[in-house]
UniProtKB/TrEMBL annotation:
Residues 12-84 form the Insertion element IS402-like domain. The lineage of its organism: Bacteria, Bacillati, Actinomycetota, Actinomycetes, Mycobacteriales. Pfam families: DUF4096. InterPro entries: IS402-like_dom, Transposase_6_like. Residues 113-139 are annotated as: Disordered. This is Transposase. Residues 114-131 have a biased composition (Polar residues). It comes from Dietzia psychralcaliphila.
Length: 139
């Protein structure tokens, strides 16, 4: 696949050509039409990849952060992301690119009695002083 040219570009042209038709169109939609879908979707991916708050998205690269956030929320709400994932997984599976082997581990790791957020007044938890608290004189 082709390389991306910028650190802000998340998709190659080939990848974008595969994803773009899966996004909702502007047909019949009232209000402002979606402008550059690629710029917005790449802004969403960049935000998650970089681990930054929405407000810190580079405006010159992705436009207003509010627009990027609203589009992400809309696509999450209407199931767009789920549909894209299902189509891409189905294509990858049909092409033999997914290994469906799964490993299941039945190991149990018990929490310490003080590691829970429940109280057990009927059960002695080991004394009048918690281990992380200093003992007070006279106790």
């Amino acid at each position: 696949m082709g390389q991306t040219k910028s650190r802000f570009r998340q998709f190659t042209d080939e990848q974008w050509e595969r994803i773009e038709p899966l996004l909702p169109s502007n047909e019949g939609r009232q209000g402002h039409p979606f402008r550059d879908n690629r710029k917005v979707v790449e802004g969403i991916i960049y935000r998650y990849r970089a681990g930054i708050p929405w407000r810190d998205l580079p405006r010159e690269e992705f436009g207003a952060w509010q627009t990027v956030w609203k589009r992400h929320a809309r696509y999450a709400r209407d199931g767009t992301w789920d549909r894209i994932l299902h189509v891409i997984l189905a294509d990858a599976d049909a092409g033999g690119k997914i290994d469906w082997n799964v490993s299941v581990d039945a190991t149990i790791c018990r929490a310490h009695q003080h590691g829970t957020n429940t109280t057990r007044p009927e059960q002695d938890t080991g004394g009048s002083v918690e281990s992380q608290e200093p003992a007070l004189p006279g106790l």
